[in-house]
Amino acid sequence: MFEGIYFADPIYLWLLVGIPLGVGFYVYYRKSLQAYLHVSTVAHAKEGSTLKSKLRPALVGFRLLAFGMVVLALARPQSMDVSTRTKTNRGIDIVMAIDVSSSMLAQDLKPNRLTALKKVAANFVGNRLSDRIGLVVYAGESYTKTPITSDKGIVKRALTEIKYQGDLIEDGTAIGMGLATAVNRLKESKAQSKVIILLTDGVNNAGFIDPKTAAELAVEFEIKTYTIGLGSNGNALAPVAIKPNGKFQYGLTKVEIDEELLKEIATKTGGLYFRATNTEKLQAIYNEIDKLEKTEIEEFKYYNYDEKFRPLVWIALVLLVLEWIFRQTLFRSFI
């Protein structure tokens, strides 16, 4: 049928079989349905049939076409316009706590850990269309880079601005401080689900808040925490000293991550611990968290039906009226 048109009651289309049956019936019984005049000679009659006799089958055609139109009308051809509206039923507030200590400049991830993380985190932010996201950075101390916001552009710009700032923030790895600051950003949240993604590449060696205490605060405010240990196994080329010109001197250093602590934080708060030894694994981890923390969206569909049978009924009526007029006038029989 026509594009965008379908039949609501297609079972009636089987009645269209009556059209070829009607044609066959008319052809088979045509001679018996016609009147004949017996004459002694046809010498003075015109040879061949007249135009009027040739057009008589059109009466049957009108009737069969009218029947076909009625059948199509019974099958109720219609078009349907679908409109949708979505409603977010469950919002998620997420804070990413990112380690910005000097060890995050290690080059086991290319070009370094911090740059690789920012790229992966930006992709994650772009996928969270219905959620609010905030950023916390920490080294030897911590601060809020971006409060939780639904403006993903602000969060992405803030991510690009994150860098090691040894002149502004004390170096070190204060995991407890980073986690506590993230909890502080989420504790007043009214969202039904609150999540922290805490990333570090070292052990807790700075700050005045114990990481386990910060984890208990997260539990109190019902904040789930996913922890990520970032760094390859073995040794990595990382900053070991600062040259007179202010640039870092790199050397091979042992990768040390307090995995037991990170596992404990994740387990206590209902989250999971992940280990990212390269950029691909880090991307896979953020993809997994993205799947685990899906925002529930309810979709409403509205259907608008447009019935198309009325023109078919009118066509059938016109054909029947024409058939009746021609039968009573031009093709009227007095026998």
List the secondary-structure elements in sequence, H or E. EHHHEEHEEHHEHEEEHEHEH
Query: What's the helix count?
Result: 10
Q: What is the total domain count?
A: 2
CA gyration radius, whole angstroms:
41 Å
**Runs with pLDDT <50, length 5+?**
none
Which range does the strand content fall in? 25-35%
What does the largest sheet look like? 6 strands, mixed
Helix coverage percent of residues? 25-40%
CATH topology of the largest domain: Rossmann fold
Structure description:
This protein has about 325 residues and is an alpha/beta fold. It is built from ten helices and eleven strands. The protein folds into two domains: about 5-40 and about 50-80 and about 305-330, no CATH class; about 90-295, Rossmann fold. The strands form three sheets. The chain has a six-stranded mixed beta sheet, with helices on both faces. Strands 1-2-11 form a three-stranded antiparallel beta sheet. A two-stranded antiparallel sheet has the order 8-9. Strand 8 and strand 9 (about 250-255) form a beta hairpin. Helix 1 runs antiparallel to helix 3 (about 55-75). The radius of gyration is 41 Å and the shape is rod-shaped. The model has no long low-confidence stretch (mean pLDDT about 85).
